[in-house]
Design goal:
2 domains, two-stranded antiparallel ribbon, alpha+beta, single chain, DNA polymerase, domain 1, three-stranded antiparallel sheet, 37% helix, Ubiquitin-like (UB roll)
Length: 156
């Protein structure tokens, strides 16, 4: 059986069973390894991607249920992702870096609906994304920085 997917603007036909988690299709079939496996039960956020513009935990989404285009950390030309990635670099957010793609995709989802979030709004939106290195205050600062860049019309 095959499944059609649109990932980062490219259409793919994959041979995975419709029950296969999207995470494994992205990583194993498409070679997009920026999306990480963390817990497998949607509790850590390392596998966060966007499906039809919404942040989802790809470890729990069967590929056959994907209802729209998928955006991963490898996407190019997305202003929110670009602004966040630039802020992440400038603030030196990543320590081990393992959770960062999920953190950035979750932050992009936040900024899509709230271009000027407060600290509390950031903490609430990012609460399901765990960072074993504990860089939460730096993540918050980078999100504020990216939000400002986007409001000013610049991504990088």
């Amino acid at each position: 059986m095959s499944v059609a997917l649109n990932v980062n603007g490219t259409r793919y036909i994959v041979g995975a069973s419709p029950e296969t988690p999207l995470l494994w299709v992205l990583r194993d079939e498409l070679g997009l390894t920026g999306t990480k496996f963390g817990c497998g039960v949607a509790s850590c956020g390392a596998c966060t991607v966007h499906v039809d513009g919404q942040a989802v935990r790809s470890c729990q989404v069967p590929v056959g249920d994907v209802w729209g285009g998928v955006t991963t950390i490898e996407a190019e030309g997305d202003a929110r992702l670009s602004a966040l990635q630039a802020a992440w670099t400038e603030h030196q957010v990543a320590q081990c870096g393992y959770c960062q793609s999920g953190q950035i995709l979750q932050a992009a989802d936040l900024l899509a609906g709230n271009p000027a979030p407060s600290d509390d709004e950031i903490d609430t939106a990012m609460g399901g994304n765990l960072c074993r290195c504990g860089t939460y205050s730096v993540i918050r600062a980078a999100i504020h920085d990216a939000a400002g860049r986007l409001r000013e019309g610049g991504a990088g």
